[in-house]
Amino acid sequence: MKRFLLLFCVLVSFLLFISFEIDVSLSALALTRQQLEGPGQLLYQSRHSLRDDTGSPWQVVLFKRIKDGETLEISLRLVGFPERIEFLHGERLTITTAKGEILAAKDAFAEKSPAANVGQYEMQDILPQLPVTEAIELSLPLEDPRHLNIPIPVLLEWQSLLFSAYI
């Protein structure tokens, strides 16, 4: 009986530890921000730091701008390390799902970019098509092409931005 009670306590402790670890890791991913930009205008942002297939870090920001209850834009901004990354502006961002479906996002900085290491892509029509049960891969249009995996928790956060409250 003592062994059973000891085993039960160890199992409960393990389950509590696991649930705490899951809770902490999920809360670390919840980086959605809301910012009032002006009267009747809100900006929602999902920010993440992810690494590409070469191990290089990227700032990945999906944002949605709303004015007077209407969505003005949903865009994905990708920022790589300055002087090491150069986007091929005018080229589309290729998005590949685990099932092999390919989507392409238009370059919002095709005519003028704030910096060579910054890319921004129009996602308003693409975001509703993205899966939430499998990761996607972004093929970055760079001088030296790279790939960036977007995990499921980030995709779920992006979907929550899609359905963010309107003002």
Helical content, roughly?
10-25%
Number of DSSP strand runs = 9
Task: Give me the side-by-side strand order of the main sheet.
Answer: 1-2-3-4-7
Assess the beta-strand content as a share of residues. 35-45%
Largest sheet: 5 strands, antiparallel
Task: Report the mean per-residue pLDDT as an integer.
Answer: 85
Tally of separate domains:
2
Which structural category do the helix and sheet elements fall into?
Answer: alpha+beta
Helix-strand topology string:
HEEEEEEEEEH
- Number of alpha- plus pi-helical segments: 2
Low-confidence runs of at least 5 consecutive residues:
4-30
Instruction: Determine Rg (CA atoms, Å).
Output: 20 Å
Principal-axis shape: globular
